[in-house]
Structure formats: structure tokens, C-alpha cells
């Protein structure tokens, strides 16, 4: 064994002082050897003696440059805090040897941290290709693609995000978080099959947040018109069996009294600025405190002006972020909540799994979800005849309670601008159709109906507004879908994100609003009506696909409800041919809404209070019969 090999052996064994002594002897005998100086620098670096390491490395580089020397130089500069110098050294290393995978990998991380995302991805890709069997290299590439894809998604560049997140899952298919983010990006692009598949891939990896991933998949199923209601219900049941199996009901201490004030526990992750506020806050404000005590159980990090409003409207405000499901159940049982009301279902941040622990004698699902929870521990789901007619065959795990009015009410935004006459009555030669719904809602069936309407109304153009349409590459994706239906994309105007107030003002530039299906609009439809614009919808066979029709019926606009794509297009064409009717609607829709159940918060509160009382009395009767 040569002296150089013996020193290397000592180095590998961690006998650094001995290795350094041998290297020093070799250097003294042959001071012109760059290899000896380089290896001495490696030992000094391992001993964290950066000054000595730099001195030896300078000696090596002076004698003869090498990519390995520059790789070590990059490491030493990075450790000393000179990131720019480290990047320059690593680039020199790759100029000397472009096949040096560790240099690509380290440079990729530094560039990523410096915000040079595209360059970083190229080097992560190179590192993975140079070592196809290196799990760490592929994991690094996946992590970088996921990070960049998430950033692109946050910036509204959905097509770019989708491509990056696909690369992430290809590089490391065992990374659940990449699949979840890919599912979200695909959903933004209306690629529902891919979104559902990505959620399923993530679930199969059984990540720590598997329950949340499963809930996201359940929501995504509602965007797919091919899914039967039985299939969707079975998926909810399967989620509950896996993530929220029921436990035996405990002995509740609640005072059994038919007439006393009831304690209602509302549980939500969205007691802040969100669409929920316009539906829930007016009800809490209108609740009769002689009938109900309102307790809000909040699972959220965000606090804003809406949160302060909710606090003021609550008799008790309970922050439950730190409580797991069992602790949350104990807290609500200790508080002697009579009726626990879930306001989130399987939407993001939900605590629906906690209901399996029996939070209260009576559990109710209401408002911010549109299907069964899947949990046998949730006793009732509040709906109405418009959303769930008596002859409905959609299956639910819960018992349906059909309210004698619309299942929710609406508080229009205080900042909504005044309604202006439709543009077709203000000298416009075109009919302007519009949709401000999420892109995921624009199903293939919806696109077909819209295209039929555009064919029937040759002077119509369509405005599609969504935060996913802020960049050219995103618009190009959807433009092709219209081409496939024979519609010139020039007839479609794409608009991206704006403030809520500005978005409402944009309705004044629309003549007719087009709803989506099978996932129909809720708040979007209500706001369009408040801005004096008729909404054309198609009634489906499930709660969520009947939502648009239920809202229009409540506003006495049943003539705007279609039963198939052909009748949908005919309704649009009929409105487009009657500017006088559009002008009349713009004048009286607000008054029509004020006179309807839609804006009747007091009526909604009284209905809920009577319903809560009935459900409480049912429980009293059952508990009396079992004791």
C-alpha cells in the first residue's frame, strides 16, 4: 500500500490526526503534488479548521485546477457564509467537469435558496440523471420541483405549477405531498380525473395527514359528473370507516329539559373572512338568545375583522386548535353542548373526524358542505325541498331534515356597488355572458352547454374570471377546449384575480351569468343575482347539483332553470334576445331577493331554533325510553 493510500485509509477510518501527519510528510517530500494538498484540505475541512483547509486548497489550485477542488472550495465558502462565492466556485467546478453530480446537487440547493428557481431545477435534474439510482438525488429533485410548483401555484401560474408538480411525482413517486399539490393544480385546471387519481396516489402512501388528503379527494369527486351518488356516498362511508370509526355514545350530563335554553356548539375552521361569513354571521346575529346559547369552537390560525365579529356574536368563543379529537370531544361534553353543528364537512381544515367521538347528544351537519359526512355519529343533515326533494334517491348516512325554507340565507357584501343597466342596453352590440366560478367547476358538460349557447347567440362573447387565469399559458390551456367545441377563443375573454369589490363591480359589464354543473354555484350565484344579473343553471340529481336551482327558485326565477344542455342554451338565447327583460331584472332583482327567504336572516334563525328544539326533544324521548 502506498503512503498516499495509507493516509486515505486512515482518513476513512476517522483517524484524522494520523492521516494529516502522513499527508504532511508526503507534501514535504513532493510539494508540487496538488492531490496531496487537496486531501490535506479535506481533512482540515472535516476537522472544521476552515483557515487551514483554505490554505491547503489554495496550494492545490495554484499547482493545478480540478473540478473536485472547486467543489470543496464551494463547500468552504458556503460554510463561511459567502453564498455568492460558493455559487461561483461550483459553477467553475462544473465548467471543469459537467458530470460531477455532487456539484450539480449543491449548486441546485444554493440557487433555489437564492430564488433562481429555473436554474436550480436544471441542476437538480442533472444530478438525478447522472445518478439514476441515487434515491437522494431523485428526492432532492422532487423536493425542488414540489417547492417550485407550490410557489407557482401560490402565484397563480397554474399551468407551470402543474408541470413542475408532475415532474416531482415522476422523480419521487413515494412523496405524498407532491401528489397532493399535483391534485390541487390539476383541479385548478379542471383536470378532475387527474386530480382524483393524484389524491388516491397520496392516500395509498398513508401519510400522516391521510384523513385530510382523503377529505380533499371526497370534495374532488363532486366535480366529476360521471360519479354516481351511490359511488360518492360509498367513498364517504369508506373514509369514515378508515379515519373516524364511531365509538359508543358516552353518558351525557346535559340537563334533560324540554323547555330550557339550548346550548349550540358551532364548529368551523373558517370563523374569518370567507364565503361562510355571508351565510352564517347573519344567522348568529339573529339568533334568539332566550332560545339558544351560541358557542363557537374555532379551529383556525387566521384572525381578522370577521373573526372579531364572530367573537362578538358568540356567547362563548373556544379556540380548539391545540385539542386532538378526543380532547375536543371531552371539552364539548364538559361544556354540556346540547347540539354540535359541523359547518365544514370535508372542506379544508375540517374537524369532522372528531364527531366520531360523540361531541354532544345531538350532532348536525349544516351549511358549508354539500353531501353526507359519511359518519354514523352525525345524526342529521339540514337541507330543504329544493336541494333534496322528498323523491330524492341520493343516499346519505345522516337522516335528512328538510327545512321548510331555503337551507341558508345570505348577507350581501356591504361594499357591493350599485347595479347598472346591462351593457346590451347601454349601446353595446354584443351580448356579454360571464362566469366567475372556480375553474374546477367548469366540467366537460358545462363547457359543452356554454359552447351551444355561444353557437346559438352569434353576437355573444364570454367572460371567464378566475384566479387561475392570470397568465398566458393558463389561458391557452382553456382556449384549446373551446376550439374543440368549434368556438373561436377570440370570443372568450379571460380575467384573473381582483379584489372582491372589484369583482362585484365587473358584473355591471355582464348581461347574463352562466352557472356551472354538476357542481353549481352558491355564493357566486347569490352575488350575481344581487348585482342584478340573471343566472342560468341546470338542475341535477344531487344536493350540490341542485343548489343553483334551489337559489333561483327562492328568488322566483324558475324559468332560468334548465334540465339539459339544449334547454340551457335555449334559455341563454332567449334572454339574449330580450334586452328589455334583462334591463327589468337589473332593476328589480335586489328587491326580489329582499322579499325572498334568501335575505331573511330572522326567518332562518327561527327555523333553525325550532329545528334544534325538535331534534333535542327527539333525543330526550329516545334517552328516556332507554333508561
Automatic annotation (TrEMBL):
A GO molecular-function annotation: protein O-acetylglucosaminyltransferase activity
Species annotation: Usitatibacter palustris
Parts forming coiled coils: none
Pfam family, one: Glyco_transf_41
Protein name in UniProt: protein O-GlcNAc transferase
Gene3D superfamilies for this protein: 3.40.50.11380, Glycogen Phosphorylase B, Tetratricopeptide repeat domain
Pathway where it operates: Protein modification; protein glycosylation
Similarity remark: Belongs to the glycosyltransferase 41 family. O-GlcNAc transferase subfamily.
Intervals holding TPR repeats: 101-134, 176-209
Amino acid at each position: 500500500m502506498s503512503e498516499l493510500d495509507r493516509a486515505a485509509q486512515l482518513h476513512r477510518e476517522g483517524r484524522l490526526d494520523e492521516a494529516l501527519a502522513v499527508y504532511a510528510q508526503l507534501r514535504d517530500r513532493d510539494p508540487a503534488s496538488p492531490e496531496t494538498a487537496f486531501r490535506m484540505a479535506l481533512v482540515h475541512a472535516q476537522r472544521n479548521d476552515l483557515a487551514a483547509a483554505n490554505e491547503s486548497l489554495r496550494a492545490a489550485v495554484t499547482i493545478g485546477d480540478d473540478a473536485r477542488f472547486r467543489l470543496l472550495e464551494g463547500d468552504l465558502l458556503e460554510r463561511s457564509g459567502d453564498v455568492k462565492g460558493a455559487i461561483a466556485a461550483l459553477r467553475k467546478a462544473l465548467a471543469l467537469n459537467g458530470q460531477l453530480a455532487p456539484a450539480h446537487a449543491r449548486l441546485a440547493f444554493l440557487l433555489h435558496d437564492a430564488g433562481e428557481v429555473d436554474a436550480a431545477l436544471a441542476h437538480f435534474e442533472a444530478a438525478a440523471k447522472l445518478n439514476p439510482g441515487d434515491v437522494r438525488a431523485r428526492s432532492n429533485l422532487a423536493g425542488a420541483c414540489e417547492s417550485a410548483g407550490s410557489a407557482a401555484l401560490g402565484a397563480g401560474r397554474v399551468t407551470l405549477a402543474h408541470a413542475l408538480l408532475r415532474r416531482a411525482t415522476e422523480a419521487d413517486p413515494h412523496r405524498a405531498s407532491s401528489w397532493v399539490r399535483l391534485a390541487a393544480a390539476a383541479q385548478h385546471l379542471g383536470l378532475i380525473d387527474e386530480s382524483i387519481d393524484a389524491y388516491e396516489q397520496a392516500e395509498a402512501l398513508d401519510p400522516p395527514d391521510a384523513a385530510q388528503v382523503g377529505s380533499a379527494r371526497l370534495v374532488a369527486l363532486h366535480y366529476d359528473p360521471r360519479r354516481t351518488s351511490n359511488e360518492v356516498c360509498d367513498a364517504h362511508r369508506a373514509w369514515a370507516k378508515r379515519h373516524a370509526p364511531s365509538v359508543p355514545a358516552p353518558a351525557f350530563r346535559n340537563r334533560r329539559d324540554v323547555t330550557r335554553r339550548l346550548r349550540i356548539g358551532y364548529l368551523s375552521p373558517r370563523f374569518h373572512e370567507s364565503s361562510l361569513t355571508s351565510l352564517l354571521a347573519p344567522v348568529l346575529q339573529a339568533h334568539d338568545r332566550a332560545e339558544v346559547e351560541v358557542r363557537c369552537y374555532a379551529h383556525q390560525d387566521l384572525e381578522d375583522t370577521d373573526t372579531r365579529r364572530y367573537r362578538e356574536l358568540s356567547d362563548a368563543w373556544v379556540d380548539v386548535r391545540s385539542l386532538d379529537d378526543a380532547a375536543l370531544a371531552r371539552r364539548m361534553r364538559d361544556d354540556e353542548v346540547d347540539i354540535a353543528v359541523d359547518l365544514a364537512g370535508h372542506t379544508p381544515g375540517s374537524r369532522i373526524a372528531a364527531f366520531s367521538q360523540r361531541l354532544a347528544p345531538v350532532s348536525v351537519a349544516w351549511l358549508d358542505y354539500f353531501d353526507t359526512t359519511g359518519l354514523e355519529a352525525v345524526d342529521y343533515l339540514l337541507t330543504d325541498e329544493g336541494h333534496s326533494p322528498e323523491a330524492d334517491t341520493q343516499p346519505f348516512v345522516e337522516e335528512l331534515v328538510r327545512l321548510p325554507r331555503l337551507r341558508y340565507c345570505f348577507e350581501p357584501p356591504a361594499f357591493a356597488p350599485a347595479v347598472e343597466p346591462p351593457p346590451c342596453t347601454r349601446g353595446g352590440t354584443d351580448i356579454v355572458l360571464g362566469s366567475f366560478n372556480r375553474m374546477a367547476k367548469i366540467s366537460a358538460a358545462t363547457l359543452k352547454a356554454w359552447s351551444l349557447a355561444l353557437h346559438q347567440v352569434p353576437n355573444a362573447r364570454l367572460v371567464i374570471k378566475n384566479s387561475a387565469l392570470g397568465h398566458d399559458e393558463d389561458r391557452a390551456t382553456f382556449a384549446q377546449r373551446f376550439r374543440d367545441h368549434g368556438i373561436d377563443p377570440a370570443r372568450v375573454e379571460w380575467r384573473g384575480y381582483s379584489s372582491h369589490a372589484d369583482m362585484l363591480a365587473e358584473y355591471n359589464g355582464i348581461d347574463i351569468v352562466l352557472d356551472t354543473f354538476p357542481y353549481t354555484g352558491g355564493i357566486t350565484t347569490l352575488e350575481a343575482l344581487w348585482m342584478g344579473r340573471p343566472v342560468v343553471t341546470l338542475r341535477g340529481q344531487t344536493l350540490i347539483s341542485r343548489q343553483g336551482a334551489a337559489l333561483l327558485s327562492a328568488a322566483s326565477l324558475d324559468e332560468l332553470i334548465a334540465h339539459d344542455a339544449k334547454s340551457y342554451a335555449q334559455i341563454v338565447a332567449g334572454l339574449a334576445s330580450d334586452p328589455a327583460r334583462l334591463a327589468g331584472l337589473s332593476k328589480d332583482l335586489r328587491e326580489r331577493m329582499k322579499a325572498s327567504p334568501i335575505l331573511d336572516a330572522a326567518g332562518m334563525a327561527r327555523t333553525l331554533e325550532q329545528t334544534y328544539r325538535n331534534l333535542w326533544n327527539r333525543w330526550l324521548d329516545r334517552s328516556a325510553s332507554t333508561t
